[in-house]
Amino acid sequence: MPRGLFITLEGLDGSGKTTQIKRLAGWMEKRHLKTAVTRQPGGTATGDRIRELLLDSRSAALAPMAEMALMFADRAQAVAEVIEPALAAGTTVLCDRFTDSTEAYQGGGRELGSAIVLEMHRLVVGDLQPDLTLLLLPSLEVSLSRARRRNDRQTAQTGKDEGRFEQEQDAFYRRVWEKYREIAAREPERVVLIEGNLGIDEVQEQIVEAVAERLVVGGKTL
Ligand code: TYD
Questions:
Q1: 17 Cβ below 6 A of ligand 1
Q2: pTM of the predicted model, to two decimals?
Q3: CB burial readout 188-197, b (16+ within 10 A) else e
Q4: In sequence order, which ranges of the chain are alpha helices (DSSP H)?
Q5: What is the pLDDT of residues 27-43, one digit of tens each?
Q6: What distance in angstroms lies between residue 221's CA and the mean position of ligand 1's atoms?
Q7: Which of 21, 52, 108, 144 is the least buried, fewest Cβ under 10 Å from its Cβ?
Q8: Domains of the chain, CATH where assigned
């Protein structure tokens, strides 16, 4: 059985990834393509607990190295429990964030650098890389204001505090944004960069085009 396609979505907080992943999953379902949707951190029972620890504002004193190691602990669990079995069964996996997030946020944002993140990926995750990464990168200004508005709303509605990253300063997000651009320039084959302040439908069109190009069903490209 051919392996499933491993597709990741990346971008800053507030880039609209979550909306797009839902739409893409709907598009895949309509075509009767076996699809699994997951996210990082989280996506497994253990991962959800790691996620809570990572995103809660009370974890404020978390050392950057500890933060990175927890991201990879979460990832190792997700790969073993969800991603690898799905791919092996021929299912396409749509994953909201993967190692590019660690490179952008811990490598760039926290200034640990790319090398250590890539080395950790090799040790923990091995050869597994996304076949396609959709990087949503509206302007930094737009991303920042969306993330802050969303965080305020979420905390008011659910009482759940997942705001540790959203409380970071603009300089942190600038470094994340720049690292994402660096990754896209380094790996243009894998990473499809969707830039600009586009509407939801326009972004979806670009996503579907990139995915369809890589999906081959019964020997035919969709
Ligand atoms: P999430 O709610 O998934 O963010 P969004 O919906 O904006 O994608 O929260 C995940 C947060 O964790 C986000 O701020 C980015 C951060 N993160 C890292 O710093 N490193 C990582 O490796 C991953 C996977 C996420």
A1: yes
A2: 0.92
A3: eebbbbbeee
A4: 17-30, 45-55, 64-78, 84-88, 99-102, 114-124, 140-158, 170-186, 200-214
A5: 999 999 999 999 999 99
A6: 32
A7: 52
A8: 6-217 (3.40.50.300)
